[in-house]
């Protein structure tokens, strides 16, 4: 009898949990040992990040105990990865050395605050639970002034999030009765208000409709804290009373140190197989990969679906019909009880649906669907 293969998954975020759960269904106990390495005790749904500051989501509804979300067959090791020895097929953590037959890297992004001098201690964001809670307190006490909302990095996960935050901020300030005392400015590094040309005019029209000032081609270079001022690489400057800016991101340092080809610590992979060059036994999924599609939860889920079936196919359990196709789908808040759904892939033209109430209700249910099915590998 052939021994069970060892499948090692680095990262216990959306991509890591999803692919682990999918593999546990596709492969029998005698076929594979499945291990997830990560440092989390609970799993946070990042889609709640821009709702918590406005009180539109209870903080306690945004996370679940991690063991509650993992198939009992999957081993979860709470540890921190420090290195990968690809030639030896081993992973080094702070506490141990782990062997693998298949390695799935799903370690997401990390914040690179140091790329913008003055960011720390001044700019606020909603990209993790702690910072969302901090912003909630700040907005509760806010009485008026200029709020700048923007992004410092087009590679940041969930690219529509700053737009969604801006439209919900307008709604929140109107509900609070201080919209007339507040100026909202939306700053973006690209030439349009969004990186996808077909969506940009829709976003721009909405921002103008709700009275948000727009500043495009503004690549933030530094923040002058004492002046409450952000500077761009082109020499422009904007003043603020409250700065809400998605921070720069990078991949994990150990990816670069492993010898795998990378861009800013995001592993370069074949876009159709998700393998680094020369390593059929390694897959990189989710935000950890350098791919020609936006970093988003749905991208990670589609990638997890492909990789789990690819490994099962290699082991003779199923037939895999196609390569990874780069699917991305997103339903987003559009303000005032409307939502909008977007879908595209490598070879599929972008589909942008008209904002409507149904998509808003779908978005409202997203956290429940995420915890009950999506992250568990059922969708």
Could you describe the 3D structure shown?
Helix 1 packs parallel to helix 7 (297-314). The strands form 8 sheets. Strands 5-2-1-9-21 form a 5-stranded parallel sheet, covered by helices on one side. It has a 4-stranded parallel sheet with strand order 13-12-11-17, with helices on one face. The mean pLDDT is 94. With 379 residues, it is of the alpha/beta class. Helices cover 25% and strands 28% of the residues. It folds into 2 domains: 5-46 and 63-109 and 251-327, FAD/NAD(P)-binding domain (3-Layer(bba) Sandwich), CATH 3.50.50.60; 113-248, FAD/NAD(P)-binding domain (3-Layer(bba) Sandwich), CATH 3.50.50. A hairpin with a 4-residue loop joins strand 15 and strand 16. The protein is built from 9 helices and 25 strands.
């Amino acid at each position: 009898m052939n021994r069970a293969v060892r499948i090692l998954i680095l990262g216990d975020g959306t991509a890591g949990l999803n692919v682990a759960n999918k593999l546990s269904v596709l492969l029998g106990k005698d076929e594979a040992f499945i291990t997830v390495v990560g440092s989390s005790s609970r799993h946070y749904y990042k889609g709640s990040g821009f709702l918590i500051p406005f009180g539109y989501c209870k903080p306690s509804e945004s996370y679940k105990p991690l063991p509650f979300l993992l198939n009992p067959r999957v081993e979860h090791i709470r540890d921190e990865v420090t290195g990968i020895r690809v030639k030896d097929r081993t992973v080094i953590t702070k506490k141990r050395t782990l062997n693998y037959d298949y390695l799935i890297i799903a370690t997401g992004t990390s914040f690179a605050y140091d790329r913008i001098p003055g960011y720390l201690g001044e700019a606020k964001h909603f990209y993790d639970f702690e910072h969302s809670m901090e912003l909630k307190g700040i907005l509760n006490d806010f009485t008026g002034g200029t709020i700048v909302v923007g992004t410092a990095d087009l590679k940041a996960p969930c690219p529509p999030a700053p737009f969604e935050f801006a439209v919900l901020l307008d709604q929140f300030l109107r509900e609070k009765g201080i919209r007339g005392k507040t100026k909202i400015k939306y700053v973006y590094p690209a030439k349009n208000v969004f990186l996808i040309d077909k969506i940009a005019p829709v976003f721009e029209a909405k921002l103008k409709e709700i009275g948000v000032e727009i500043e495009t081609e503004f690549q933030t270079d530094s923040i002058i804290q004492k002046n409450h001022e952000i500077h761009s690489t082109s020499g422009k400057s904007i003043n603020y009373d409250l700065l809400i800016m998605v921070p720069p991101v990078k991949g994990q340092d150990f990816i670069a140190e492993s010898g795998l080809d990378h861009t800013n610590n995001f592993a370069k992979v074949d876009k159709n197989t998700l393998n680094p060059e020369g390593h059929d036994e390694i897959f990189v999924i989710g935000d950890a990969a350098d791919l020609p599609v936006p970093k988003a939860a749905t991208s990670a889920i589609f990638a997890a679906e492909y990789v789990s079936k690819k490994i099962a196919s290699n082991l003779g359990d199923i037939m895999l019909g196609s390569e990874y196709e780069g699917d991305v789908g997103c339903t987003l808040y559009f303000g005032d009880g409307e939502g909008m759904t977007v879908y595209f892939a490598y070879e599929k033209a972008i589909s942008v649906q008209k904002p409507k109430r149904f998509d808003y209700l779908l978005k409202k249910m997203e956290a429940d669907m995420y915890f009950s099915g999506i992250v568990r590998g059922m969708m």
